[in-house]
Predict the structure.
Amino acid sequence: MSEQFSEKPELLPFQQLQQQLSNYIRDPENRAYKPEHGLEIEQRRLDIYAELFFNNLYGLFSQVFPVCKAIIGEHRWQQICREFLVKHNAQTPLFHELAGEFLDFLDNEFSPQPTDPEFFLELAHYEWVELVLSVSEEEDLIACQIPWQNIDLTAKFELSPLALPLAYQWPVHQLAADYQPEEPEQATTLLVYRQCAQMDAGQPVSNIQKDSIEFIELTPLLYQWLVALNDHQSAESALEAISQGLELDQKALQEFAKQTLQQLMAKGIVSQV
């Protein structure tokens, strides 16, 4: 049997030129653009284009990850944005999806410095979730007002696609330039959701409020229950699954579950299937 070798095809001349130009734009300090005679670009124009390209990316990431930038500082933030540009091969040209590419870069290609905070990746993920929810085209659940005593735990409930239960090692919702705690002993569990703006009939367009991204702090048990809701045939079976082995008053637990569902249904976060 003859061996087969897979080699990358040699780039055509125009592809080599494109590659050389893109390498320079990504990393102008360490890459050169030196095409054949007649294909040169004035250095001033090259530098303007490279700067515009970087500034667009820098501006986008600064807008999506403002707390990350504030905590890590201007100089280091610029370094990280440049490192993304040099190392990461983005798979999308869409600006709102590039934030997800940045998160992938932080998780797989980023070279942190000793002075970078340990919570940096988690904080970036939390800020990215806010973007994902704000641009999501998923339909909102209809808010429902119902007395908690009338809620049937044997029914199946599901979370809104615009509500995400999240668990972090760090208190990402509290982190700021002036608040960077030591490693906490207990995980942070949150429900992050998009709160739809209420719109009354006849309300002037100028007075219509925008949707907002909100969060609710959860206990670890409540977090586990919300995660389990979609995978169980009833709210009751989900509750039983996460409370096994715990010495809890079942009647009090069920009343708490009903009251919690009532509050979440009123916000359009949970609905009965």
About this structure: The beta strands are 157-159, 163-168, 188-195, 212-217, 270-272. The chain has two domains: 13-134, 138-272. The chain is about 45% helix and 10% strand.
